[in-house]
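ok, trying the design again with the full structure, not the truncated one.
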């Protein structure tokens, strides 16, 4: 896979397409966390299968995740916490855990672009198409997708790779993704990656 070199001399993978996984690294210990987890587990299984396909095609993955109030955390600490015995989401996190060569961005708010280096990372990758997956459909996925759209990224948001607390929240978000953001919302198994 081609690499780009930033001013500090570090290399970054170059790829027109990038897989984003939003907020699946979680302990799910919050209001409605158990309800969200019930819907997130099937979506995460499909995200894991999609990630396997994208990796085989040389498409990089960026985990864009809530900081969970743990601003001193970095990837390994957050992962350790979310895999711990206190975590309701440990089985889901084990299924979708990042590989050592995956990218990782902590976010403070709903959008993966707000106050994060995501834009810079995507520019260094020469990305133009984003496959957006994760939770929650009507909040973090929606805000991230809207910010990506105004930055003129092509959007693919597989409807079976996103979830919310209630199915109607996902249905409402999907209508916005298709109409306002012109996203492809087809099934992940039918997604053409090349």
């Amino acid at each position: 896979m081609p690499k780009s070199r930033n001013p500090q001399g570090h290399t970054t993978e170059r790829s027109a397409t990038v897989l984003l996984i939003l907020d699946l690294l979680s302990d799910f210990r919050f209001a409605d966390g158990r309800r969200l987890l019930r819907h997130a587990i099937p979506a995460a299984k499909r995200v894991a299968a999609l990630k396997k396909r994208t990796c085989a095609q040389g498409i990089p993955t960026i985990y864009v995740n809530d900081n969970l109030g743990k601003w001193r955390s970095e990837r390994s600490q957050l992962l350790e916490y979310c895999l711990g015995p206190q975590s309701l989401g440990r089985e889901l996190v084990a299924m979708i855990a990042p590989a050592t060569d995956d990218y990782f961005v902590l976010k403070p708010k709903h959008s993966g672009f707000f106050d994060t280096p995501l834009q810079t990372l995507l520019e260094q990758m020469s990305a133009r198409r984003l496959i957006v997956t994760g939770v929650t459909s009507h909040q973090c996925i929606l805000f991230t997708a809207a910010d990506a759209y105004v930055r003129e990224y092509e959007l693919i948001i597989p409807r079976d790779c996103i979830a919310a607390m209630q199915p109607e929240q996902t249905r409402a978000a999907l209508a916005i993704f298709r109409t306002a953001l012109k996203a492809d919302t087809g099934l992940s198994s039918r997604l053409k990656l090349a």
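Keeping the full-length input from now on. The first strand starts at residue 3 and ends at 5.
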